[in-house]
């Protein structure tokens, strides 16, 4: 008997497989296709011949952990103890899975804001807990009245994603005021803040949970080197949490992963000495602006994108097809792969919206845009 009877092949796998089958340009799955920084690859090349291939300590390579602590302080003015409040993870998804498995018990409830990343719900179900899916407003802002109504004495955790995948929205100062008010009414709720796109923001910087004092003793934040440094295949990230929560998270981590691959930890530790994460937003803003310019004469309506490397677009003026069918036909008939937004909702809410990934080189964006503009 399956523990996850309703889980099937993910839409990302389906669309990427179809893109290969039909030789389509893949703007579906969220990974860059341009080269990694040569400074990083040079570090890896040198380290490969050094003695860096054995287990690191379970929580992470100490020099890397110290540099993550400094990065957190420099970015958010938050001082953490790397020995007790930090864990290096095998990607952000493992950090999310481990956190939920460690902190959520049978019959607990977990608030998930839709549209949402598909890896949130499964670990909740594996805990024999109840995922409570709450839809954002149609403009993808949180509906705090609706969220509060979904909370109860059983609510153990709420997951927030900021900047938000798939919509590219960022939370506002008022959102955090509303969150603070809610948590005062429910003092036992833990926040899991997925901030993997934290350095990919544009006109406005995202407001991190790290900067809110009311969250520091009840929040687990998840970050991703894979997203920040265009190395998604390395599967390396980290979580930060107060010591009493981190103790529980580490208990699960040591039996799930034990320690993250060593060479990536050594390499990123060195790379943090030379890279400037504050330039990342400018880099991707240029990508976003260029992609939007390329599509300005298309029949798609582009939605606001405040962060991440995803562009949501409406095809309502083009077709009445449901978004899954539209995306499949987009691959088959037009040679471009995208992701249907309905798959991020528990009820598969269809608003004729799809998601493009613009973390691609200019040639790929230009080639895709040419096809899209012909639709």
From TrEMBL:
One of its GO terms (cellular component) is cytoplasm. It is an enzyme of class 2 (transferase). It comes from the Bacteria. SUPFAM superfamilies: PLP-dependent transferases (SSF53383). Signal peptide: none annotated. Keywords: Aminotransferase, Pyridoxal phosphate, Transferase. InterPro entries: Aminotransferase_I/II_large, Kynurenine-oxoglutarate_AT, PyrdxlP-dep_Trfase, PyrdxlP-dep_Trfase_major, PyrdxlP-dep_Trfase_small. Residues 24-372 form the Aminotransferase class I/classII large domain. Belongs to the class-I pyridoxal-phosphate-dependent aminotransferase family. This is Methionine aminotransferase. It comes from Flavobacterium nitrogenifigens. Its cofactor is pyridoxal 5'-phosphate. Its EC number is 2.6.1.-. The lineage of its organism: Bacteria, Pseudomonadati, Bacteroidota, Flavobacteriia, Flavobacteriales. GO terms for molecular function: kynurenine-oxoglutarate transaminase activity; pyridoxal phosphate binding. PANTHER family: FI04487P.
């Amino acid at each position: 008997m399956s523990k996850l009877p309703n889980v099937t092949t993910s839409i990302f796998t389906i669309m990427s497989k179809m893109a290969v089958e039909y030789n389509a340009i893949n703007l579906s799955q969220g990974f860059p296709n341009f080269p990694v920084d040569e400074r990083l690859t040079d570090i890896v090349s040198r380290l490969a011949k050094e003695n860096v291939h054995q287990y690191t300590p379970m929580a992470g390579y100490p020099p890397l952990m110290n540099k993550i602590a400094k990065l957190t302080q420099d970015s958010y003015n938050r001082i953490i103890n790397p020995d007790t409040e930090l864990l290096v993870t095998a990607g952000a998804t493992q950090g999310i899975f481990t956190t939920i498995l460690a902190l959520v018990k049978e019959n607990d409830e977990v608030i998930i804001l839709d549209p949402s990343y598909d890896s949130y719900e499964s670990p909740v179900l594996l805990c024999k807990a109840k995922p409570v899916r709450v839809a954002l407003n149609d403009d993808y802002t949180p509906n705090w009245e609706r969220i509060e109504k979904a909370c109860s004495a059983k609510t153990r955790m709420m997951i927030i994603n900021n900047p938000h995948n798939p919509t590219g929205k960022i939370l506002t100062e008022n959102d955090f005021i509303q969150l603070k008010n809610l948590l005062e009414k429910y003092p036992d709720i833990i926040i899991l803040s997925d901030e993997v796109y934290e350095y990919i923001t544009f006109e406005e910087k995202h407001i991190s949970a790290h900067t809110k004092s009311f969250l520091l003793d009840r929040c687990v934040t998840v970050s991703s080197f894979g997203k920040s440094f265009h190395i998604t295949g390395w599967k390396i990230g980290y979580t930060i949490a107060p010591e009493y929560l981190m103790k529980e998270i580490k208990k699960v981590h040591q039996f799930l992963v034990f320690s993250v691959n060593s060479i990536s930890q050594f390499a990123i530790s060195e790379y943090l000495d030379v890279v400037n994460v504050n330039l990342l937003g400018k880099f991707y803003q240029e990508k976003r602006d260029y992609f939007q310019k390329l599509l300005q004469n298309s029949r798609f309506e582009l939605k606001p994108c405040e962060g991440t490397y995803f562009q949501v677009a409406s095809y309502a003026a083009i077709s009445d097809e449901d978004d899954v069918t539209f995306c499949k036909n987009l691959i088959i008939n037009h040679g471009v792969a995208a992701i249907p937004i309905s798959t991020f909702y528990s009820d598969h809410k269809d608003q004729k919206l799809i998601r493009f990934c613009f973390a691609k080189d200019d040639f790929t964006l230009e080639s895709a845009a040419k096809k899209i503009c012909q639709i």
